Amino acid sequence: MALLSKANQEALVGPLNLNNPVVVQVLGICSALAVTAQLEPAIVMGLSVTIITAFSNLIISIIRNTIPNRIRIIVQLVVVAALVTIVSQVLKAFAYDVSVQLSVYVGLIITNCILMGRLEAFAMMNKPWPSFLDGIGNGIGYAIILIIVGFVRELLGAGTLLGFQVIPQWCYDHGYVNNGMMTMPAMSLIIVGCVIWAHRAYNKDLV
Amino acid sequence: MNSLRKFFDNIKPNFQEGGKLHAFRSLYDGFETFAFVPNTTAGRCGTHVHDAIDSKRIMSLVVIALVPALLFGMYNVGYQNALAAGQLDNATFWGMFGFGLLAVLPKIIVSYIVGLGIEFTVAQWKNEEIHEGFLVSGIIIPMIVPVNTPLWMLAIATAFAVIFAKEIFGGTGMNIFNVALITRAFLFFSYPSSMTGDDTVWVAQNAIWGLGYDVPDTFSAATPLGEIAAGATTLSTSFCDQVCGFIPGSIGETSVVAIAIGACLLLCTGVASWKTMLSVFVGGACTGWMYNALGLSPLDACQHIVLGGFCFGAVFMATDPVTSARTEGGKWIYGLLIGFVAVTVRVLNPGYPEGMMLAILLMNLFAPLIDYCFVSHNISKRAKRAINK
Amino acid sequence: MAKKFICSQCGQTFEAASMPDKCPICGADTSHIKEVKSKGINTNSNAYTICYAVVMVVLVAFLLAFVSESLKDKQKANVDIDKKSQILASLNVRGLAKSEVGTKYDELIEETCVLTPDGQRIDGADAFDVETKEIGEKLPVYKAKTAEGADALVLPLKGRGLWGGLWGYVAVTPDLQKVLGAYFDHESETAGLGALIKEEKFQSQFANRPVMGADGKVALTVVKKGASEADTQVDGVTGATLTSKGVGEMVLTGLQQYANALGAAKPAGCPEAGKACGGCPEKAAGCGNCPEADKACGGCPEKEAAQADGCQHKNPCCQSGKCDKSGACGKPGCDGEKACCGQ
């Protein structure tokens, strides 16, 4: 089988648009609300989830035929938990500031529905390579939404992007004030709602 | 009146299918039905009970009821400005009123232009007739914000509220939350330094076109509730001033007397539900008395009702027929809970000195649930009666 | 021989002669059903399940232990750098790159010690190891130089804001008379309002303020903007009354604790107070025994005077002023010369 056959391409690209885990399946919303007040943690969170979905999918897919059926959920959890712990430790060691901002939400990737969903629905019944692609696709699909939300929230909430001042001082001198509500999780729910709105307005068949 | 009718009839062809101004038909439609009760009736989809008074007329009544509070609010803006500048002895009634008018009018205009603009656009886009709900919201919005709120903030907040609290739920009559309160909530959470605090937001500081006075920078005036939240135990204003409304606060909310005039009008014409209104006051008074007796709040029950936006909220916003409970029994529960939550937030959360906005929004959310409980209770009661017969 | 099948919808296994049309248990169609190929081991047996679980758990445990152990030092270094840069911020050293924090810290911080609230020095304790939540029971003190080269004591503080905890570091002159710099941080104050206490703009207001009021007690605090009446009253953040109040309270009570412990509560207090941490030249025990300090009965060179006025030790004998070191004064509790005079 070719590395990027039609089916594999679908596994990779589908979650980016028509099968997006956040805006179509509405999974993983909790962390999308919590870590998107700034762009940087949103990107790191998106990357972490991508890595974890990809490798947990891969590992589970490799050992899928050996997993005893009765404890398969526990096996999946252990694999995910191990990966999450490793990622969290690595972040603490090499990206301390971001890990402080992400705080418990890295650990809570374990409970991210996208992960368990992909393991149960895809990795348990597909070969390693498609599973890996599926994990990457879903992780990136999730990351895209996080980045969009993080972009809007940081720009309007703090006037910065990745920590750099974007809205010029001139505006502030003329009475512009950052929107405090953008830094609250409530607003990211509304932004995710707007993204879903735009997405469905564009893809009529999803409605 | 006849000439106005003629004018509408004359320009009507322009807006009909094929006319050169067809694109603005919803605008025409909106103004025509505002000026004259439409003579069309709802047909084909079932039985409708008609009244001579339609929703545009009801809205106009509410706007009229708001006028005393608005006029007093304008006067109070000028009064507070003169007081802060220490020029009260030199200021004339008309000078203060004129200053207030100039300070408040731009807010009313901005609120109407933004809100109606969005309503008209949506109506045009969805090919529907224009909804009239914003007539009331548009006048309430400037009345429940501090006088120093920048116009651009007001415009953003109004747009947010009309789009996210109203249009996405399906427009007038479908909204879950009171649109004016969502505007205020958006401002409150987005730009807290312009909406709360004890410093400079409540009193206009600069003269406008020669009217009013420049207030020295060091001046600050807190609302009575702000003073209490900051830990004061006595208020700097007299009870008489608080009732009449000569205190700092949002533009239209300060005067109990002016609001009472509006309340009378609403109750006499039957536009607002007396049950909702009364139960809000009862709930607030009982809760205020309770906290006062427990020693948690230095304000007595009476002051809790008089201060802040309690009266304004109870009369004009809790009674909003769209977002409040609709069952008769539900209105009592709805109102009592608003009063209770409003005073509780004030007393127990030092971060939010004013709880009326949050209380009404919270109960807006619960109104359908309250109604549901009452309706299903009634159904089961009647079902039992029928079975036992 | 009957083949074994598994349905991925209900997760059940069943036996059948050939591929069935639908799952006999939940009715899922064939796309959910897979044949279970037995490779010699029955993956559903109890023994296999238990072995599998044990092996997996042990493997993962070893893996995680290895990762955790190998990254531990690096993580600890990060936490330390964060704390160090906060301390440096109070010494007016801000915006350092991470790699410079350590060397700058070593350069500016000369010595540290931990005191109990009554001024006893805790032997061998390092101020840096005291966690924020312990402040109050233990009083960590850093002896340092500011960015400008002035001698300073950095005093960590903790308090409560509107929504959550506050903490901060205040650098003062060794005699506790003047603030040299301050740094505050918070857990969860309102963004755009209370959170502004973390900004340099707010913190820099503290520099060069006097700590003590006219009555010789710590008076430094935060008041509503515009209501400041004395140099010891710093302007709060506009619209964040309660957070500002929290900072004010934290500074006031926190510094008073330190002032008591360091024995410098009086304006013209112990000349050696500031050096207490490095050890008073005479009194190795440190701050608590500094001459002329409130609690200093025992160590006062002019013992008689100290006992008459300032002695805070509630030994009845001392307060009577009769103590002549020659015998019991007859008051209850006085049992001999040494005990009597507070030693």
Summarize the structure.
The complex is a heterotrimer of chains A (207), B (389) and C (343). Chain A has 207 residues and is mostly helical. Chain A contains 10 helices and 2 strands.
Helices and strands, with pairings:
The complex is a heterotrimer of chains A (207), B (389) and C (343).
Chain A: H1 6-13, H2 29-34, H3 39-62, H4 72-94, H5 96-102, H6 104-107, H7 113-121, H8 128-158, E1 160-161, E2 164-165, H9 169-173, H10 185-202
Antiparallel strand pairs in A: 1-2
Helix pairs in contact in A: 1-8, 3-4, 3-5, 3-7, 3-8, 4-5, 4-7, 8-10
Chain B: H1 2-15, H2 25-35, H3 55-85, H4 93-126, H5 134-143, H6 151-166, H7 179-190, H8 192-195, H9 224-229, H10 239-244, H11 256-268, H12 274-294, H13 301-306, H14 310-317, H15 328-348, H16 356-388
Chain C: E1 3-7, E2 13-16, E3 33-36, H1 46-90, H2 98-108, E4 109-115, E5 139-145, E6 151-160, E7 165-172, E8 179-186, H3 200-203, E9 221-223, E10 233-235, H4 241-262, H5 303-308, H6 316-320, H7 337-340
Parallel strand pairs in C: 9-10
Antiparallel strand pairs in C: 1-2, 1-3, 4-5, 5-6, 6-7, 7-8
Description:
- The complex is a heterotrimer of chains A (207), B (389) and C (343).
- Chain A is mostly helical.
- In chain A, 65% of the residues lie in helices and 2% in strands.
- Chain A contains 10 helices and 2 strands, in the order ααααααααββαα.
- A two-stranded antiparallel sheet of chain A has the order 1-2.
- The longest helix of chain A is centred in the last third of the chain and has 31 residues, at 128-158.
- The mean pLDDT of chain A is 86.
- With 389 residues, chain B is mainly alpha-helical.
- Chain B has one domain.
- Helices cover 63% and strands 0% of the residues of chain B.
- In chain B, α4 (93-126) packs antiparallel against α5.
- Chain C has helices spanning 46-90, 98-108, 200-203, 241-262, 303-308, 316-320, 337-340, and strands at 3-7, 13-16, 33-36, 109-115, 139-145, 151-160, 165-172, 179-186, 221-223, 233-235.
- Chain C is α+β, with helices and mostly antiparallel strands and 343 residues long.
- The longest helix of chain C is centred in the first third of the chain and has 45 residues, at 46-90.
- Chain C starts with a strand and ends with a helix.
- Chain C folds into 3 domains: 3-36; 98-262, no CATH class; 296-343, no CATH class.
- Helices cover 28% and strands 17% of the residues of chain C.
- In chain C, α1 packs across α2 (98-108).
- In chain C, β1 (3-7) and β2 form a beta hairpin.
- The model of chain C is unreliable at 264-343 (pLDDT under 50).
- Classes of the chains: A mainly alpha (207), B mainly alpha (389), C alpha+beta (343).
- Chains A and C meet through α4 of A and α1 of C.
